[in-house]
Design a protein that fits this description.
Layout lengths: L1 H17 L6 H10 L20 E11 L8 H14 L12 H4 L7 E5 L12 E5 L29 E6 L7 E3 L12 E4 L17 H10 L35 E2 L2 E2 L19 H12 L26 E2 L6 E4 L4 E7 L4 E7 L4 E3 L6 E7 L2 E7 L1
Parallel strand pairs: 1-2, 1-3, 1-4, 4-6
Antiparallel strand pairs: 5-6, 7-8, 9-10, 10-13, 11-12, 11-14, 14-15
The protein binds zinc ion (ZN) and calcium ion.
């Protein structure tokens, strides 16, 4: 009997750990219908000719944590923003892995993502909202994380900000998103499990390169799965070949279904992070259209460029002048410093021995974050 129980336990463990819900957006949609919270009627997709305009999307990241592991580092958050900026601007290094067959289909979305630089009261802010919660794990695709009353945190001005909730999700769910018009504003945004948010090279997960974020934000801007409804071409794009079912892992090229070669390297399939590399031109057009129509408030003001001076979260290290023009002085010795811009890009990684006058004249003007001894300082370059 005990032997049998052990086998059952082993089997159930094996099954639950093997089943990964790469994305629960479709399940979440059904769940919304069950709860009577689904507003959606399939929106007519209008194609905008791509204009090569770059739009900036202000992002607030809510980190809900019950323990230290869930309270992921600032660097992880910056790495997610950077991954988005690469993937949505065709500057991801693995774009060269797109097979010749599909290279002419690659589309540039032209969105930049930045961390909002002020909170709802107009105070200086890093874009990272850390909130302790009594909830140790949130149910797969419910909305508890979106309400302070349920142990989550209320959305911030969802018309003007892209809200991303990072928390522990049950059921091996990596993440889910709302599509434009799906839900009332307080539910609108993207939810991603903390283990799959940003780049984590110390993880051996196949989902450790931030592509869950790239995929979910694709939904947020009105993209369907390329395989949705089997061979039906439901996603509205001729340049994403029909696919009979999602692709997992990292298959050799080519794979075929529905009488065509599968675009398994599309961000809206389910392949491993290291094996997805592209959106198509049609997908880029749908996203630009979604932004300029359903989500146009996101671009109505640029909450990332507001210049607020005299702001340092922690004053144990002096950085001056702030704002600076060319030379920034940092009162430290024998310390390593890291510097990021609001797009998540690491612009400086330097060990300071004695000379603590940094010539940063090469940087464009704007807001920057400097990490010194695990503390974060905000500095402005004129
Ligand atoms: Zn999805
Ligand atoms: Ca298609």
């Amino acid at each position: 009997m005990r032997f049998l129980l052990n086998i059952l336990f082993f089997l159930s463990y094996f099954i639950s750990s093997a089943q990964i819900n790469r994305c629960s957006t479709d399940e979440y949609r059904n769940n919304l219908k069950d709860r009577g919270l689904y507003n959606y009627h399939k929106q007519e997709i209008v194609y905008n000719k791509l204009l090569n305009v770059n739009y900036t999307i202000p992002v607030v990241v809510h980190v809900l944590y019950n323990n230290n592991n869930q309270n992921i580092s600032d660097e992880r958050i910056f790495s997610q923003i950077q991954t988005l900026n690469e993937d949505y601007n065709m500057s991801n290094l693995d774009l060269i892995n797109v097979p010749l067959e599909f290279q002419s289909n690659i589309g540039n979305v032209g969105f930049s993502f930045c961390l909002v630089q002020q909170d709802l009261q107009g105070n200086p802010f890093t874009g990272i909202n850390r909130v302790y919660t009594e909830v140790d794990i949130f149910q797969g695709f419910t909305d508890d994380m979106k309400f302070s009353s349920q142990g989550g945190v209320d959305a911030w001005d969802p018309l003007n900000y892209l809200n991303i909730w990072v928390c522990d999700l049950s059921g091996n769910t990596l993440g889910f998103a709302t599509m434009p018009g799906d839900v009332d504003p307080e539910l609108d945004g993207v939810v991603i499990d903390y283990e799959y948010f940003g780049v984590d090279l110390s993880s051996d997960s196949p989902y450790n390169l931030g592509r869950t974020g790239t995929h979910e934000i694709g939904h947020y801007f009105n993209l369907e799965h390329t395989f949705y409804a089997g061979c039906s071409d439901w996603d509205g794009c001729d340049d994403t070949p029909s696919l009979s079912s999602p692709t997992y892992g990292c298959p050799a090229f080519p794979q075929e279904s529905c009488q065509s070669i599968n675009m398994t390297m599309n961000y809206m399939d389910y392949t491993n992070d290291a094996c997805m590399h592209m959106f198509t031109i049609c997908q880029a057009e749908i996203m630009v259209n979604a932004l300029s129509t359903y989500r146009s408030d996101l671009i109505s003001d640029n909450d990332c460029s507001i210049k607020l001076i005299d702001y340092v979260e922690d004053k144990s290290v002096n950085l001056y002048p702030n704002p600076f023009s060319d030379i920034l002085t940092i009162d430290i010795q024998n310390e390593n410093i890291l510097m990021y811009d609001i797009y998540g890009r690491n612009v400086l990684n330097q060990y300071i021995e004695n000379d603590n006058n940094l010539n940063l004249s090469y940087l464009p003007s704007g807001n920057y974050f400097i990490f010194i001894k695990n503390k974060i300082y905000k500095i402005i370059k004129n």
